[in-house]
Amino acid sequence: MDGVNLSAVNLNLLVTLDALLEERSVTRAGRRLGLSQPATSAALKQLRGLFDDPLLVAGRPDMTLTARAEALRRPLKQALGQVASLFDEDEPFDASRVTAEVRICATDYVPFVMGAQLVERLAARAPGLRVRMGTARGYDVHEALAAGEFELAIGALAHAPGFRWHELFRDDGVILVRRGHPALSGARDGAIEAEDFARFPQIHLAVYRRTGSLVADANAENASPEPQFTVGSHVVAPFMLGGSDAMVVGSRRVAERLAAVLDLEMLAVPGAARSIPVIMTWHESRDALPLLRWLRAELIAIAASLDE
């Protein structure tokens, strides 16, 4: 694209390209932008000529990005964000007039713990804002944020260079067992001994990691047994107990709400397991965008209200 006359480039084409690279589908990109499928296909044809590259090729179930398209994703997202900030900087932000979509990288933990408050607040304050929650295609959440797949991520995430972050709240690891579980007979003040903990099958949460678990990380100083089962869903894990003698080691905030529903008992994890920070993080290139700045403030307010 060397020597391209920028005055001849339609900025709307770049907005369309951004949608195409994210959706990997002409139909979905057009729906997101309010364009017909023929109009979106025509835009893709123009973009292919502009970049002298196919950009997206046929695949199943979604189209596949070429190497050039993959390389464009991050700088394109950053450039469009900077252009948007030129128009927003001098105007007061009015959430009630927003018609946009924000993608939040999160497991089922976030909508389960914060979802009701988020729906209530946004329905009242920003009815035109669409929020899409989902998980990254791979294990690297920060890479997904940098590539523009998501605007925000929330979870038990590490800090990384080039990203801003805010600790929303903290959670603790607890044990869930069925009512009548044999370990309950030896429990004292809601806790069991490490030996009892080790002799029953365990179900741990393994979210965004190939090995280990959230609880193993939080309880690293204690000898936690290797779990027999690891799952990626905070909400599904307690349903796996059934009538077994297994133990789910998961989040206190989730356990407190599901224990009564599923007739389960809650126990403390043996040892001095430290609390787990729940972090909201975003790429620094999106730090000043008014919509995201406003949404982050809303999420912070929701987090502050959780323990009230």
Account of the 3D structure:
The chain has 308 residues and is an alpha/beta fold. The protein is 40% helix and 19% strand. It has 11 helices and 12 strands. It has helices at 11-23, 26-33, 37-51, 67-88, 109-125, 141-146, 194-198, 214-218, 236-239, 252-262, 290-305, and strands at 56-57, 64-65, 100-105, 129-134, 152-155, 163-171, 173-178, 202-205, 229-231, 247-251, 264-268, 276-283. A 5-stranded mixed sheet has the order 4-3-5-12-6. It has a 5-stranded mixed sheet with strand order 9-8-10-7-11. Strand 3 (100-105), helix 5 and strand 4 (129-134) form a beta-alpha-beta unit. Helix 1 (11-23) crosses helix 3 (37-51). The longest helix has 22 residues, at 67-88. The chain is elongated, with a radius of gyration of 23 Å. The termini are far apart. 32% of the residues are buried.
- Give the helix tally: 11
Give the strand order of the largest sheet, numbering strands 1, 2, ... along the chain: 4-3-5-12-6
Cα distance, first to last residue? 55 Å
Write the element-wise H/E pattern from the N-terminal end onward.
HHHEEHEHEHEEEHEHEHEHEEH
Which geometry do the CA atoms define?
Answer: elongated
- Sheet with most strands: 5 strands, mixed
Low-confidence regions: 209-223
Helix % is 25-40%
Features:
5-stranded mixed sheet; 12 strands; 40% helix; 308 residues; alpha/beta; 11 helices
Q: Topology, pairings included?
A:
Elements: H1 11-23, H2 26-33, H3 37-51, E1 56-57, E2 64-65, H4 67-88, E3 100-105, H5 109-125, E4 129-134, H6 141-146, E5 152-155, E6 163-171, E7 173-178, H7 194-198, E8 202-205, H8 214-218, E9 229-231, H9 236-239, E10 247-251, H10 252-262, E11 264-268, E12 276-283, H11 290-305
Parallel strand pairs: 3-4, 3-5, 8-9, 8-10
Antiparallel strand pairs: 1-2, 5-12, 6-12, 7-10, 7-11
